[in-house]
Write a structure and sequence with these properties.
The chain contains 13 helices and seven strands. It is mainly alpha-helical. Among the domains are: 9-133, no CATH class; 255-346, no CATH class. It has a three-stranded antiparallel beta sheet with strand order 1-2-3. Strand 2 (225-229) and strand 3 form a beta hairpin. It is globular. The protein starts with 8 loop residues before the first helix and ends with a strand.
Length: 347
């Protein structure tokens, strides 16, 4: 057995980056050859009816993978900036295959800029919205990501499906009809939770506290509304927020509070620790998620510029982190930078 080489974290990361670079450049060469096979129609000589058929039959690609490789191979010759970013490992394959669906030589830089500020899931959501709207560029200056339906899966046996499917059809008609499954699902879960506790849904008493925090954002002026998700705020109708406010805790942040305070004098005493009401506003602004890892447990309000270095206890200098990431920052293994106004970063 060969000896194992022990690397530190940075050296191992460098090795991983090299592997990603090689993978991406190898995939670019693959896409180039797929494009040549597609344009020349040489797949016919191999007994295939199309480039997708060739990829599935000869290379054992899944149907969806064959389609995406064909699409990207056809698009990249007109998208040199996207090609270069992917070859330099500045962009993931997940983002490339989405952006290639809509980008043009005129808009590819806008998509690259968008991908720098958002994850692959957000890129996919924005591309889907762009295709639906007939756009070739991401939206600029919008309040949040576009709305999108979500599919929830249940794993059941074939015999259970036949019975459950008939009951689902009847319940959907009663609670909004097919295509509007939200009210039905909420009614079903309310009924189930009531039966589990021995109470009817109409007589269920409130639990001691919320089991999960759902964060809504709403501009008090224009009433633009969003719900916080794993990929960031997603647009919703303002009526959904209106309904939630009947039982929700409302945290209001004024424009004045968002303005940075003047720096402390060099001989001034450090600011006070973060009071509970300010911490609540920081967490609400950040969607009750760690801004480094997106976790939701054991959340802290961290001073980006430390109080010991005259950092202000204010919204602009406070960012939400989980207990683990907060610990990494104070161990100098994770660095938080920026402000609320300019955007926070972690490295």
């Amino acid at each position: 057995m060969s000896a194992t080489t022990v690397l530190d974290a940075h050296a191992l990361h460098d090795q991983i980056v090299v592997c990603v670079l090689n993978c991406n450049r190898g995939r670019l060469k693959l896409l180039e050859h797929i494009g040549q096979m597609d344009e020349s129609r040489l797949y016919v000589e191999l007994g295939c009816s199309s480039i997708e058929h060739y990829l599935q039959k000869k290379l054992k690609f899944k149907k969806s993978s064959a389609w995406s490789h064909k699409t990207v191979a056809r698009a990249l010759p007109e998208l040199p900036k996207l090609t270069k970013a992917f070859g330099n490992a500045e962009l993931s394959w997940s983002s490339v295959r989405e952006i290639a669906l809509v980008a043009t030589s005129r808009t590819e830089q806008q998509w690259l800029d968008f991908s720098k500020e958002h994850g692959a899931d957000a890129v996919e959501r924005e591309v889907k919205a762009a295709r639906g709207d007939g756009r070739d560029a991401p939206r600029e200056g919008d309040y949040s990501l576009p709305p999108q339906t979500v599919t929830i899966k249940f794993v059941i046996t074939a015999d259970q499906y036949e019975t459950a499917n008939e009951k689902l059809k009847l319940a959907q008609v009663k609670h909004g009809g097919p295509g509007d499954d939200g009210p039905f699902l909420e009614a079903m879960l309310d009924s189930y939770m009531g039966s589990e506790t021995g109470e009817s849904s109409a007589e269920t008493t409130p639990s001691p506290g919320p089991t999960k925090t759902v964060v809504y954002h709403q501009c008090p002026t224009c009433r633009a509304s969003a719900v916080e998700t794993e990929v960031g705020p997603v647009e919703i109708e303002s009526t959904a927020v209106d309904a939630a406010t009947e039982t929700a805790t409302i945290v209001q942040i004024t424009p004045e509070e968002e303005q940075p305070l003047p720096p402390l004098a060099t001989d001034a005493e450090p600011d006070d620790p973060t009071p509970p009401e300010l911490r609540a506003k920081v967490l609400a602004r950040d969607g009750h998620r760690c801004q480094s890892c997106r976790g939701r447990s054991d959340l802290h309000a961290h001073h980006v510029q430390p109080r010991s270095k005259l950092g202000r206890t204010e919204l602009d200098n406070l960012v939400t982190t989980c207990k683990f990431c907060h610990g990494l920052i104070h161990q100098n293994r994770l660095v938080a930078t920026g402000t609320a106004a300019t955007g926070f970063g972690f490295s």
